[in-house]
Amino acid sequence: IDRRGWEIGLHPSWYSFDNAEEMKRQKVALEAALGKDVVSVRQHYLHYDIRITPRVQAEAGFKYDSTLGFNDNVGFRFGTCHPWRLYDLQAEKELSIIEVPLIVQDGAMLNPAKGMRLDEDTAFRYVMQLAEAVERVGGVLTLLWHPNAIINPSLWNLYGRSLEYLKEKNAWFGSVRDVAESQQ
Question: Element (H or E) spanning 56, and its range?
Answer without folding.
Answer: helix 53-59
